[in-house]
Specification:
single chain; Quinone Oxidoreductase, Chain A, domain 1; six-stranded parallel sheet; 15 strands; 22% strand; binds NADP nicotinamide-adenine-dinucleotide phosphate
């Protein structure tokens, strides 16, 4: 029997102990006009895939966010742009306390087509998975909501009076989010100035950073402030959100109108300068649903987030079609479900630097 006709699928879920385990579930179906059902061929791993089960345990929830696959059925509002057989990549909210069925570590998923990217024929499935959607979605939210930057790839910010570009600090330029931010900021008319280790600085420059400062330097913040931005830095995207990264960003930011986007929660006592506006973008929010996380990670349902995400999706599709945007360097982990579990352990151990772990799901092997 064709796998498309089967009513069940394999997937990777949180067990009661929090460890991932494979399970058989009913295949998801269309629920809304903009939905598509995707046959998932490859996935990419994100730190949230091991952090969320620890911070918001949801036994039985399908894990995973980024995916690549092929549309097998489309709702009435999705059918024109995403007919069956379209290769797509995107992101869903895996390990979701509000809906345990939405993860990408599954043979099939259903998702809103307004956040999907059509994948060019020249990209492999693993490259499509590495592109996913968490990366660009995070940068979109950080630029528009957290940092309130007006430039877009389709309408770049104009240069300043002296002809220079507005600098934006990307702390953690070698993260998957960081290389996406450097590319998009640069195409949006800004000058990305990044931090990275010495072994990753070439990568970060290659993805569009105008300069890279070693974050290990005890004077990282002062160097960014005095040498690279002349005390005029107003925007910092912190992809690390540690006490050291916050200190560096807060030192580098200038006196007037400074905004800081931290990808993880930054406690009040790390914030040494109260005048800096701090905001944490939460990428799951782009789906418009309530995020049923605890504390500062909770978000109310907000349909305007889906509108924001959809606008940025259009920007990203244009760049992808024009060959101007590329995924973080992909590194395959073999072994299907076991490959995902192994990859998450590698990430937890800090063994993954400057690479996006990707796993093929359409192979024959399994745990
Ligand atoms: N709020 C949200 O919605 C959201 C969305 C996406 C990601 N995140 C969070 O953002 C963070 C980054 O995620 P990601 O997937 O982009 O990262 P990633 O690709 O997993 O990051 C790997 C890189 O992190 C850098 N790094 C690790 N420890 C560091 C430290 N102590 N100081 C400075 N750099 C360090 C390394 O850079 P070098 O090679 O230069 O050493 C390494 O190459 C994670 O905490 C993730 O949970 C949040």
């Amino acid at each position: 029997m064709s796998p498309f006709l089967q009513e069940t699928m394999d997937c990777l879920v949180q067990s009661a102990s929090g460890q991932p385990q494979t399970e058989v579930r009913v295949k998801p179906g269309l629920k809304a006009p903009h939905d598509v059902v995707v046959h998932v061929s490859a996935v990419a791993l994100n730190p949230t895939d091991f952090k969320s089960p620890a911070s918001n345990p949801t036994p039985g929830a399908i894990m995973g966010c980024d995916f690549m696959g092929t549309v097998i059925s489309a709702g009435t509002a999705a059918d024109k742009d995403f007919p069956p057989a379209t290769r797509v990549c995107g992101f869903v909210h895996g390990s979701n306390p509000g809906n345990p069925e939405t993860g990408s570590f599954a043979e099939y998923l259903v998702t809103d087509s307004r956040l999907l990217i059509r994948v060019p024929d020249s990209w492999t499935d693993l490259e499509g998975a590495a592109f996913g959607g968490v990366g660009w979605g995070t940068v979109a939210l950080a630029m528009e909501l957290s940092l309130q930057l007006q430039g877009r790839p389709s309408k770049p910010a104009p240069p300043r009076d002296d002809g220079s570009r507005i600098p934006v600090l990307v702390y953690g330029g070698a993260t998957a989010t960081g290389t996406m931010a450097c590319q998009i900021l640069s195409m949006s008319g800004y000058q990305p100035i990044a931090t990275a280790s010495s072994s990753s600085s070439t990568l970060v420059l290659d993805y569009g950073a105008a300069a890279v400062v070693p974050y290990a330097s005890p004077t990282c913040g002062e160097t960014l402030r005095d040498k690279h931005t002349g005390g005029n830095l107003r925007h910092a995207l912190d992809c690390i959100s540690s006490p050291e990264s916050v200190k560096c960003c807060f030192t580098a930011l200038g006196r007037i109108g400074a905004r800081y986007a931290g990808l993880d929660y930054v406690p009040d006592d790390w914030r040494t300068r109260k005048a800096i506006k701090v905001h944490m973008p939460l990428t799951y929010a782009l789906h418009g649903h309530e995020i049923k996380f605890k504390g500062p990670y909770h978000r109310d349902a907000d349909p305007s987030m889906l509108e924001l995400g959809s606008r940025w999706r259009d920007e990203m599709q244009g760049l992808v079609d024009a060959g101007r945007l590329r995924p973080h360097p992909a590194r395959e982990v073999r072994g299907k479900w076991k490959g995902i579990v192994d990859g998450l352990e590698m990430m937890k151990a800090g063994e993954v630097r400057g690479q996006k772990l990707v796993v093929a799901l359409d192979g024959k092997d399994s745990v």
